[in-house]
Amino acid sequence: MKIALWSFAHTHALSYWHVLSQRADVELVVTDPDHGRRGNEPGGEALAAQLGVTYLPDYAATLDWGAEAVVICSENSDHRRLTELAAAGGAHVLCEKPIATSVEDAEAMITACAEAGVSLMVAYPVRFSPDFVQLKQTVDAGALGQVLAITGTNNGQIPMDARAWFVDPELAGGGSLTDHTVHVADLIDCLFDGVPARSVYASTNKILHGDRVSVETGGMVSVEYANDVIATVDCSWSKPDSYPTWGGLTLQLVASGGIADLDAFASRVDGHSETRRNGLWLAYGTNADELMINEFLDAVSTGRRPQPDGEAGLRSLRVVQAGYASVRSGQPVALD
Amino acid sequence: MAAQTEDSTEHSTEDSTGRPGRDRPLRIAMIGAGGIARAHLPAWLALGAQVNVYSLEGTEQLIADCGGGTACSSLEEAFADRDAVDVVTSTDAHREIVEAAAAAGLDVLCEKPICRTAADTAAVLDACERAGVQLYPGHVVRFFPAYATMHAAVADGAVGRVAVQRFSRTGSRPVRAWFHDPAISGGIVLDQIIHDIDFACWNAGDVATVFGRATRTGSRETGVDTAQLVLTHVDGTVSYVTGTWARPGTVFRTTFEIAGPDGLLRHDSTAHPAITVDTGAADASAGDGEGTGLLPAMPGESPFLTEIREIAAAFAGGPPPRVSAADGLRAVAVAEAGVRSIAEGRAVAVAEVMEGITAGRTA
Q: Residue limits of the Gfo/Idh/MocA-like oxidoreductase N-terminal domain (chain A) (predicted)?
């Protein structure tokens, strides 16, 4: 399979490159033509050379090369432009999350891919983690009874030191509410097979790193779903810069028949390093990125629709956008 | 103790002279003999207090089980020759008893919530202030060692200005039916989640707006009850508090995480057990009338003893304890805003709940 990786803007690009480069059945090329606007951050032809992967000068060149599918890791605000470009070139799309920075953009992406007859998948790896899969199987088997309420957390370090665009409201679409609500929202979407949100309330602030950025850095998002499940997501960038790992994700389900807790990054060896003057956090869990890429490539090669698809990406984006509307109004926002 | 000074001079028995709690034992009237009384009475007895107990039911059994206390057959009899009153009845009876205690010139420890509504709570604060008696709400979580340690660190700037904090509280549903009647207890928000509401306010100050959602399954007596509140504090901190009354036998578990620009503090009552004993068989007993929602497994002395020792010292003329009547009113007001938000599906300003209420705001 001929696959093109589009842009090194998102830090996840390196993980996807690693997974793709390990696959014997994948021919991989990379392009990062907009690297110049990211200043001295790693990227472009130099990073490709460092990784030992073939670099092509721009997006069109990778389509001309014959890319069957592209993996888009650009700034969020470019997702629509690049997806439409790929669709026009007949390439399937795996797009980094969030799907877009507006509902309108996401809908245009879904339409473009549908009309071109290509797949659109959104990169939500946590739903592929075996621990989450086990949780979903537990729920589906009825072992917990009826799920009533969920508390989710996706707290991390502020990503601006790796890539400054994460805190640019234009390029990212917002701050932590954009970056960290959607992973948990996607897990809930997966748990309940695409249940839409009915009402969203959010409260945010800029107390963390407020002197450095203009976007929100902390907050809570309260959601009521169409199946009556209520959920609250802590989307804060609340892990300190010196924290021994990037962050984590947890999910607690309160159900009629019991309570279930998921710590998606629990698999680790803990320790302490005198040299680093910090805790050691040595993750050994399954590489969910690899399972996610496998799903995408399998769907591409067999012609079936991958999940989570563009519609799933749109549902979790709607939660975020309603969250911003709620922050502006101070009241919950109803969704159709 | 303003009214108590006169009281002491009126009694001629030698037993009544001297400063209560210092030169002679504190004399307490405990009103109520339910689940929480079983945590309070041993604490009073451990402090050497003489305790009159009056309750509509369960008095003799409580005294027998705790090995101390004197049964009384009326409120008046219980109040006679006392220094202070400990109100541990169901919530709906608090106002009448606290006002009677104030009228009798007795200091008061009142289980949380002081009352079901901010208006009733403010009236109680007024009555105590007019009578010149002390009133403290039993927000015992402030005395739990993990929470007290966390708060001291937060107050010392360990995380900087608090940005985001989460609190959760889960236990098996209380067995006694009155907890599940909102008209009596106020429901899970006013009875259980109010612990963490008070603590969120202790860390981050007054709350401007509350948004809540709640859900349950099954009947109030046998189902699962859970609620989630998002509190936006006046200074911008966002707090999340959630509580669950779960199935019988559910492990009592509390968690918190406090995040600020300079770091994180977190705790899970089920993590880091000091001692673990595996006997190979699950004990799924439902516990007492409080379900398993009274105390998590923890080392050291009962936080109820820590609480009552500090409040007893205040009754004896010592420094004020770490919790005030105004704290109790604030917690009730925030909880009431949460209940109103859950019912009406909108964010509710605490100022809306406090509209027209003037008492207790300067306490």
A: 41-124
